[in-house]
Design a protein that fits this description.
It is a single chain. The chain contains five helices and no strands. It has helices spanning 2-17, 19-25, 34-54, 66-89, 94-115. The longest helix has 24 residues, at 66-89. It is globular.
């Protein structure tokens, strides 16, 4: 939960405060609604980061905190699929590879958390 919160928080802060730079780096004109869309996406990431940070001390898995686990799993799984699809046409972009690997790892971890019973710690 902590690593997910930190990564999503970092992405959210970057998207919120540097939308023009992100769009310019991606080769997209920041004029119009594109910058607004990046900022709103940043707000979504910050919201997920805060939720994950606040849930870091709770038992997650099985029936416990199921909405938190399923929300994270859904986000990371769908985004991982989109990133894998993007790699088919942009397979030479190292940044997309790195982000894809991170998203696939989190998708697998949250799948494990969402669909298995939590284990009791010693």
């Amino acid at each position: 939960m902590i690593s997910s919160a930190v990564i999503l928080g970092g992405l959210g802060l970057a998207a919120t405060f540097f939308p023009q730079e992100i769009l310019n780096n991606a080769g997209i004109d920041p004029a119009g609604y594109a910058s607004l869309f990046v900022q709103v996406t940043g707000a979504l990431y910050i919201g997920f980061a805060i939720m994950n940070w606040m849930a870091k001390a709770t038992i997650i898995g099985g029936i416990y905190s199921k909405p938190v686990a399923m929300g994270n799993f859904t986000h990371f799984f769908i985004a991982a699929l989109a990133l894998i699809k993007a790699l088919q046409t942009h397979h030479d972009m190292m940044l997309i590879w790195i982000i894809t690997v991170v998203y696939v790892v989190f998708a697998l971890l949250f799948a494990w958390v969402a669909f298995t019973k939590p284990r009791r710690s010693n």
